[in-house]
Structures are given as structure tokens and as C-alpha cells.
From TrEMBL, chains A, B:
D-serine dehydratase-like domain segment(s): 250-357
SMART domains linked: D-ser_dehydrat
Taxonomic superkingdom: Bacteria
Keywords, sorted A to Z: Lyase
Record-level GO BP terms: D-serine catabolic process
Coiled coil location: none
GO molecular function: D-serine ammonia-lyase activity
Protein's UniProt name: D-serine deaminase-like pyridoxal phosphate-dependent protein
Gene3D superfamilies to which the protein is assigned, alphabetical: Alanine racemase, D-serine dehydratase-like domain
Organism taxonomic ancestry: Bacteria, Pseudomonadati, Bacteroidota, Cytophagia, Cytophagales
Pfam families: Ala_racemase_N (PF01168), D-ser_dehydrat (PF14031)
Matches recorded under InterPro entries: Ala_racemase_N (IPR001608), D-amino_acid_metab_enzyme (IPR051466), D-ser_dehydrat-like_dom (IPR026956), D-ser_dehydrat-like_sf (IPR042208), PLP-binding_barrel (IPR029066)
Length: 370, 370
């Protein structure tokens, strides 16, 4: 299969990917909570089917466009986990006519706009800022919360369904205890908000979403639903956090070697920021790493090799610095395997996947726009 | 026009873009050198036509795939300015049968592979490392140079055409004098290499390529050809370097506002790393900037506003921090204009452009792959 790869290609190990999907489905089942997997990492109808085989019915996406893509492919219960873009009201109504649509609000203006323009009922979730401070309503902003809930309550098209949070700050941690503390804080705060309204809305749900918490915790209580997404592939960032082992990473770039520089043991691959995107990790010596090198074989890839790393990316070139021994092992025209720092962004720029048995799987971003 | 924009959109000001194209064409003509514009920034057949109207005949691209795209659209003289990927020999032969194909080599192994597999003649350029140290042959590596030139000379399919460099290190400068010194050093070194072989190859050309040098220098001597690309749009990085003014930046993102946080004067737009990619600039106070905010109107956009900036990007969210006065000026559902830090990467992830009169222009990355 590798012999047929001529260009920079994103490889997908279906077995590892299916194991990741099964692992989280099992954990949710064991904890008696619902898993509503986030599909923003893979954005692929075919990968979505592997979730369906493991029992997924509801999904999470991060844009209305992504909701439309999965709605067109048989998903009927979709949460759009970003404050709803009220300029896309036409698409909101189109989706609400077709699927059980869950929308997120953090400002009363958004809810007012929905109340005015909705033609079909939707489920409304309030996003609570439990510490990440990207977006959300602060849990003690009772006046704001009460006003939004009152508005939702008055309108037949708006069904107050739950409170949710995204603990993006767990992505900055490398200590499992810190991640547990963030998680427990979030669960506590979301339950405070739910308790404030559960008299009037007894069915109100609590939903959380980050891959680090959902990976590290074995016992998850106090929530009705989890929405992790990145675990479908994992990546070097998640390994660095402690969410996964290297051998759970289910995607790997195959990059043709196009130049070698023996005077500094640097190898140039065709693989730059248009292939990897541009997230990086801090390496042991304080320098940035844009990917780790693995050995490719017909059956997949090894754990990362020591003494060889992607040290910089320009638009189309990737620079790999190696020990002399590893430098000598590669020749021009070889394919080099590179584990990505951030699989969501790498998949988004690559626009498709190639499985180890040579199947091409689609990604929404590679489906064409015109 | 703005009223019809519902999603995150990359706006293109055709007038500014055509002025940038004309400016560089005029400069090349004035200096009696050839302009072979790099098309990796726009990657658009329609924008390419604007270059053709200004006299461009030969172009530069950064992958064989991009060469195929432009070859399919009437370009017949194409330089692929990256060490050639010898795994794509089939595509090399296909292109060589169709267009005047110029390839770049930095290692003898690449030239050997070409010599063995080429079915049609191609033009060979040697890439010289004049100081950027990404890739290229060092100008004093005479043994290596001589061996490659001897191999090229022996083979009828390989026509030794010139020596070229890319001064990527000018992108790290903000001092015009430093950029001039880098440029003059490169021209000196390339001419040394050319002079070594001009007895045997009297037609040998010298080609340089970076947008900072080509923008800042008014008089360019000692080269036959320039290959700048980013100047077609420019961006905040080029403004920071000193290559352009804010009002020459020809692309701007229009991002719907999806949330507001009055307690910290932060605005959330739908516009994250899948829209902007993830390059940043160092701001005045040492913090990172991922974009600058402008006022949008039907005729284009203003210079950047002071006191409001994109301070972080996650996958789909952009966080804008504003002064109180500017924070209050925006409401949920408004479109916010944001100048990109790096227009090449932003265009690549967006996959298309919308002109101010509402035309949709394509980008290779948005053309679909399956």
C-alpha cells in the first residue's frame, strides 16, 4: 500500500480508531451516561458509521455547516456546540425541520433572535463558563441566567434542555490530578445551575465535553452526557496531556522525503503547514516540536523514534532534525511517518484519509465548495 | 453584499489585489527583469487571469499538484519551486508532456532519479542555500555542485537552466536595511555559482523569490527573474515586516459575532484555526495577535482599529479583546472584519474567496478531492 502513496497523505489506522471509539462507548455505558461524540475531529461520514456501529445515536458538531453534512447522512439528533450564529437562521430552520436540533446560547440577544425567527422547535442548551473563560455564562450570573431561562420558557419553539460546559483548560494540563479537579469543579458548577431550574424543568440535562477529562477519569458521575471528540484519533497533544498512549494515536502523516542536508543532519519532507496546520508542542529542551517521526510499515506504524523530530514547518516544507544514525537510515524518495501534534487541524487541512488497506475516506473540508 | 454573508467568509478586494499585481509587474519591467509570480498564495485560476492581463507568462508553484491545476487552466511555463518529489514521477512526465516544466533539485539522488525516469525534457534549477538554511546547496559546496551539474550535462532530458534561492529569512526582519543586506548577499552568492558554470551554460539564469525583498527594493539588479507571491494579497505579517501598508492588504475575513462577554470586554466570533490557520504575530505588549479588526463596509474595509485585536483562536472560535467603547459598538449577529496574519494559510484553509461585488473565486484547496 505504501508503494502507491506518491503525495503527502493522512493515514488512518481503522483498528486503532475503532478501539478508541469502543473504549469511550464502553466507559459511557459503564457509567450509565450518554455518549454524544463530537464529530469535529474526524468530520467524516464513513468514520461516523463506526460510531453508529458502537451505538451512537446523538452527535455533537461545531458548526451548522457540519450539522448539515451529517444530517444529510442519516444523523437525526445533532447538538451544534458553539453559540449559534444567528445570521444562519435559514439553515437553522432547514435543519430543525429535518433533525432533532440542539443549539447553544450564551447571550439573551441570541435567544431573542431565535425566538423571533424559528419556525420549528429546537432544543436549547445554556453554555456555562466553569473556568475555561472562552465563552459561556458565569454560573453566578443569576440575573442573566434567569432572564434567558424566562425568555426560553415563554417561547414554544425553544425547549430548555440542559446546561453544558467545555473544559478547554484541561488541554493545558499534564497532571491527571489537575484534570480531575477541573472536571469535578465543572460538574459541581453545572449541577448548581441545573438545580436552580430543575423545579420548573425536571428533565434538564448536564453535559460536559473535553477529551482529557473523559479519557483520564474512569468513573464519571453527576453528568447525563459526555461529548468528547478528539479521542477518535488522539494525537501528540493528548499523549502529552496524558489522555492516551502513543499506540492509541490512529492517524499518521506519510510525507515524501524531498531533500537531505548531511552537514546538519536535517531531512526535508513535503509536509508543511498546509498539511499539518501549525500547532506545536514544547519539546524537552524548550524548542518547539511540530510532529514526531515513526517507522511506517504495511501494517501501520511504530511508536515515535527517539532522536528525530519535526522542528519547523513552512507552507509546504517540513524540516526534520535527526541523529546521524537516523539521518543515514532515510533516503530521498522514502516516505516518512509523522504523528501530528493536533489531529483535528491536520485532518481539516488534509481533507481526506487513507486507511491502511487503501480505502479513501472523506472529510467535510475536502468535499469541494463551488 | 455584506447582508448576504451568513458564514465566515474570506473577502477579496479585487481593486487592491489588481494594484498589487500591477505594482510588481511595473517594478519588474522598470528593472528589466522577468517576473515569474508565485501562485501558492492565491491558488486561484481567476486571480491568475489578473496576472495574465498584466503580462505574466511564466509562473511559480509549490507542488506538482498545483502545477497540474494551473496547467489545466492554460499556463504553459511553470516552475515547481520545491525540491521535486520523485515519488510523483508519473505526474512529472504528464506535466512535462504538456508544459515547459521547471524543476528544482538540491541533491544528486534527485537528479539521478529524474535522469532514469524522465520521458520528456525538463528545465533544472539548482536551489542554493544563501542563508535561510531550510534547503538548498551551500554555494561553496563545489564538489556537490560540480557532480550534479556533470550529471545534468550528460542527460538529454535535463536542461540546466539556472540557480535560484528563497530568502525566507527576510520574513524574520523588520528593518529594511537588514532585508537589503540579505538580498544583496543572495544575489552575490547566486552570481558566484552562476559564474562557475556560465562558460559551459551561457544562458544560465539567476532567480530570487521573497516578497519582502521584492517589495522593499525599488532597484533590483544582478538577477534575471523574481518570484514573489504573497504580495498579491499581502497580510499583517508583511505589514509588520515593512513590505506593505495596511491599505494594500487585499483580503479580509468577515466573521459573524456569536457571543459577547461584557465582564471582560471580549467578543467571540465564528472564526477559528480552521478559518485563519494558526500563525500569529507578537503584539506591542508581548502577547500574541491572531488578526486585527477593521470596519467593514460595502466598499471594502478600513485600516485596523486601535484597541481591539484577535487574542486567541480555538478550532472554530476566535476571541477578540476590545476597549469598552469598541466592545459596545458591536452586537451579536454583526459581521466583524479581521485582517489575517498570514494570507497564504488563511486562503488555503478557507478554500474560496468572495469579491466585494459578490463573485465567488475558487482556491485549489476548496475544489474537492474525491
Amino acid at each position: 500500500m505504501l508503494d502507491h502513496i506518491t503525495q503527502t497523505t493522512l493515514l488512518l489506522d481503522e483498528e486503532k480508531c475503532r478501539q478508541n471509539i469502543a473504549m469511550m462507548a464502553d466507559k459511557a455505558a459503564r457509567n450509565h451516561i450518554r455518549l454524544r461524540p463530537h464529530f469535529k475531529t474526524h468530520q467524516s461520514v464513513q468514520v461516523g458509521e463506526w460510531f453508529r456501529e458502537q451505538g451512537a445515536t446523538g452527535i455533537t458538531v461545531s458548526s451548522l455547516k457540519m450539522a448539515r453534512y451529517f444530517a444529510a447522512n442519516g444523523w437525526t439528533d445533532i447538538l451544534v456546540a458553539i453559540p449559534v450564529n444567528i445570521r444562519e437562521m435559514e439553515l437553522v430552520n432547514e435543519l430543525a425541520a429535518k433533525v432533532q436540533l440542539h443549539l447553544v446560547a450564551v447571550n439573551i440577544e441570541t435567544v431573542q433572535a431565535l425566538a423571533e425567527a424559528l419556525q420549528r422547535p429546537v432544543n436549547i442548551w445554556l453554555k456555562i463558563d466553569t473556568g475555561y473563560h472562552r465563552t459561556g455564562i458565569l454560573p453566578h450570573s443569576h440575573e442573566e441566567l434567569d432572564a434567558i431561562v424566562a425568555l426560553v420558557e415563554q417561547n414554544d419553539m425553544l425547549q430548555f434542555t440542559g446546561v453544558l460546559a467545555h473544559d478547554g483548560h484541561t488541554y493545558k494540563q499534564t497532571d491527571a490530578e489537575a484534570i480531575r479537579t477541573i472536571h469535578h469543579t465543572t460538574v459541581f458548577l453545572l449541577n448548581l445551575v441545573r438545580d436552580r431550574y430543575k423545579g420548573r424543568f425536571p428533565e434538564l440535562k448536564v453535559s460536559i465535553g473535553d477529551t482529557p477529562s473523559c479519557s483520564i477519569l474512569q468513573t464519571i458521575t453527576g453528568v447525563d452526557e459526555i461529548r468528547p471528540g478528539n479521542y477518535v484519533f488522539y494525537d501528540l497533544t493528548q499523549q502529552h496531556i496524558g489522555s492516551c498512549n502513543f499506540n492509541q494515536i490512529a492517524v499518521c502523516m506519510a510525507c515524501p522525503i524531498i531533500a537531505k542536508h548531511p552537514e546538519r543532519n536535517e531531512i526535508i519532507v513535503h509536509g508543511g503547514s498546509v498539511h499539518f496546520s501549525k500547532d506545536s508542542l514544547m519539546g524537552a529542551n524548550g524548542s518547539l516540536i511540530f510532529g514526531r517521526v515513526v517507522e511506517l510499515s504495511e501494517n501501520g506504524w511504530s511508536e515515535p523514534l527517539e532522536g528525530i523530530e519535526v522542528v519547523s514547518l513552512s507552507q509546504e516544507h517540513g524540516t526534520i532534525r535527526a541523529s546521524k544514525a537516523l539521518f543515514d537510515r532515510y533516503k530521498i524518495g522514502d516516505l516518512m511517518g509523522v504523528l501530528p501534534v493536533h489531529s483535528c487541524l491536520t485532518a481539516d487541512v488534509m481533507g481526506s484519509y487513507t486507511t491502511l488497506d487503501g480505502k479513501r475516506l472523506e472529510h467535510l473540508s475536502g468535499m469541494g465548495q463551488l
